[in-house]
Amino acid sequence: MKLLLVEDNAVNQSLATAILKKAGHNVEVAADGVEAVNAVRSRKLDAVLMDIQMPEMDGLEATRRIRKLDDPEQANIYIIAMTANALMGDRDTCLSAGMNDYLPKPIDQKKLLAALIKASSIAPIYASEDETDDEDEGSVYLDTDMIDQLEEMIGSVALGEMLLMTLADAPATVALVS
Q1: 51-62 burial string, b = 16+ CB within 10 Å, else e?
Q2: How far is it, in rounded angstroms, from Cα 37 to Cα 158?
């Protein structure tokens, strides 16, 4: 599939791009909603993976504007919300804005690829209904199994680049939380 990844965070861009490319998809990146609307308007795409919170124009507004495009093929593009907003009601907010599907972050490879299978109208063969999104939100730990799986998914070079970006962003992230 030819995909548009709309994401302002470099680490998330790198991770999602690596997963998608390894799965054989063609990926273009937009850093905000304005770029997303322009990309959908100007080129043939199969689906959009849309972050919600971005500078310039958020994903909800970008989706609303895409849905109002004159060309029906562009206006009806399959849009998947990818957001750290995983609170009750956020899924409904995304779907009400015109999005077709919703994936909470952090990015889960199986769920991401299953959403793309759904987007291409092929029934998912490995997605299970009993997978839950329940997480222990209070815990902070280093999940070495997850890092090993990530390395297997995207390779050691891409993983190293992502870790370096994460470390570089850490002081700003800590300042925002504090």
Answers
A1: bbebeebbbbbb
A2: 28
pLDDT tens for the chain, residues 1 to 178: 899 999 998 888 998 999 899 888 999 999 999 999 999 999 999 999 999 888 889 999 999 999 999 998 899 999 999 887 666 677 888 888 899 998 888 888 888 888 888 887 632 222 223 333 444 444 344 556 666 677 777 777 776 676 666 666 655 554 444 4
Tell me the C-alpha distance between 22 and 99, whole Å: 25
**DSSP string for residues in 130-167:** T------TT-----HHHHHHHHHHH-HHHHHHHHHHHH
Q: How far is CA 142 from CA 9, 75, 149, in A?
A: 21, 41, 13
Whether the ω angle into residue 106 lies within 30 degrees of 0, i.e. cis, is yes
- The type of residue at 24 is G
Residues, the chain? 178
